[in-house]
Design goal:
498 residues, alpha/beta, 6-stranded mixed sheet
Length: 498
């Protein structure tokens, strides 16, 4: 894979996606910088104001056009190449550091707050298991689910056939992704094998005896198998809905709020008729496919590397653990540990979190389930003097959205002095087209700047996991997990396993 492959990979990845933002944020952090505008442009209050001037319908259309601008023309489907994307990922790190630099650990796996904030605390790279490729689609009706599946099943099949080491998920969520998928179809590529490009990076960049840390989100989702051949069996899936404001069950059973949402969107539908699921598999965006873990175990044994596993069910389950890890780190440095900077989806910045001495809490999204997890943490943690919440904008009022006022009330209820929502235009939210240009500036000014500390070691995390009560002696002692398909707020235990 030469320079051409890296360029091709950069063209294939979708900039607004969670894993790609994690790669950009962590590689930027390792070179001593922040993470502006989801890695795609400057942090600018002026640009933010200009972007939010148009009326709401125009701003909503801007989200559609942004989604289309990231999508590949359909003629490029045969060129979608996981090796090229891996080469882009590795290039983000190799271009940033000297050829001799090695790391004591590398983080690999399912994206979550840990991809951003555990990697930054350890000062090590993050390699994603799953990446998103989007393809232009101006014809599929967002609320005609089976038609969408049937229209794009051949493309999913083709991508799976051309990339035998990944599972391909055609993901279709007309509630949460509606603006971005108005003119795009989404395909997530989930690596079941390490691949030579990741393996070569580990051999070159992981210090002798270093640690491979896997991020394992065990959340599953119902899917329909769309494979058409033995060659792609169990590797081509259609996933209707995804983790957001609606429980999994509500996508198929419908509800009054789904009907009201569809009416507000001008749809002739009042519920969704989904194809019959054929099973449950790791969630397309957030889930961990353990096939990759088995290969990493064998690779680590062969090359003399140690292993750690951060095991959680929902991707936000470890947010409290990471917040308390940072608090413990700051206290041992003699720093204050009383400013919480809650950061949502990809509107986050590990560099400015550490540079301002803020404690990170990662919200998966700006929806009710994430609100409840943050609320639960604040009710059970030692109090903070300041609580600042950065919210992501996704372009529309979808079911389960929590308005900025409620986030602010939560912050003020638990902050001793200052509780605020930062980095958004509340009049424009959630179609805040300027948000991507504004959030980093808000984080830069969260507190006084300081030199970044020396990174934590894996042994520091081991010791903290023992004190925090989540250490597991081996992978054999990991807990069973229960997917919260009905939105009851189930909390499964997390584990840090050797």
């Amino acid at each position: 894979m030469g320079h051409h492959a890296q360029k091709t990979g950069a063209h294939q990845v979708t900039d607004f996606e969670s894993s790609i933002n994690a790669v950009r944020a962590v590689s930027g952090f390792l070179t001593g910088g922040g993470h502006p505008a989801m890695g795609t442009g400057p942090s600018s209050e002026t640009l933010a104001k200009l972007a939010t001037l148009p009326p709401r319908r125009v701003r909503e259309k801007a989200f559609e056009l942004a989604g289309r601008s990231e999508a590949l023309p359909q003629r490029h489907i045969p060129e979608i190449d996981v090796d090229a994307i891996d080469a882009w990922v590795i290039g983000e790190y190799d271009d940033a550091i000297s050829a001799e630099t090695t790391y004591p650990a590398v983080v690999v796996g399912a994206v979550s707050g840990a991809a951003f904030f555990l990697s930054a605390a350890l000062g090590v790279p993050y390699l994603p298991q799953t990446t998103l490729v989007s393809v232009r689609d101006g014809e599929t009706h967002p609320d005609e689910i089976t038609s969408a599946m049937e229209a794009w099943a051949p493309a999913a099949e083709q991508i799976a056939r051309n990339n035998p080491r990944v599972s391909v998920y055609h993901m279709h969520d007309p509630a949460q992704d509606r603006p971005m998928m108005a003119q795009s179809a989404f395909f997530r590529l989930k690596r079941r094998e390490l691949g030579e490009i990741y393996a070569d990076f580990l051999r070159r960049r992981l210090a002798p005896g270093g640690v491979i840390i896997t991020l394992e989100n065990t959340r599953t989702w119902r899917v329909t198998d769309t494979s058409q051949s033995a060659e792609t069996a169990q590797r081509s899936w259609f996933q209707f809905g995804c983790l957001g404001g609606l429980p999994e069950e509500e996508y198929t059973t419908g509800s009054e709020r789904v009907a009201a949402f569809l009416e507000d969107q001008g749809s002739e539908h009042r519920s969704w008729q989904a194809p019959d699921p054929t099973g449950r598999v790791p969630d397309g965006e957030w889930g961990w496919d353990p096939a990759l873990g088995a290969e990493i175990d064998a690779f680590a044994t062969e090359h003399g590397y140690a292993r750690r596993r951060l095991h959680q069910n929902e991707p936000q389950d470890a947010s409290a653990f990471l917040a308390e890890l940072y608090r413990d780190w700051y206290r041992r440095l003699g720093w204050q540990d009383n400013r919480l900077l809650a950061q949502t989806y990809t509107h986050l910045d590990p560099w400015w979190t550490l540079a301002t001495g803020s404690v990170p809490f990662w919200n998966r999204f700006h929806m009710e389930p994430s609100f409840r997890v943050l609320q639960e943490y604040l009710e059970n943690s030692a109090p903070y003097r300041e609580i600042l919440i950065s919210l992501f904008s996704h372009g529309l009022v979808s079911p389960g959205l929590v308005e900025p006022q409620r986030w602010r009330q939560l912050a003020r209820a638990h902050a001793q002095e200052r509780g605020e929502v930062i980095g958004i235009d509340e009049q424009a939210y959630p179609a805040d087209t300027g948000g991507a240009f504004r959030y980093q500036e808000a984080m830069k000014t969260a507190g006084e700047h300081r030199e970044l500390p020396e990174p934590l070691s894996v042994q520091d995390v081991d010791a903290f996991a023992e004190r925090y009560g989540v250490a597991a002696g081996s992978a054999d002692s990991l807990p069973e997990h229960t997917d919260d398909v009905e939105g009851h707020g189930l909390r499964n235990p997390i584990r840090w396993a050797r």
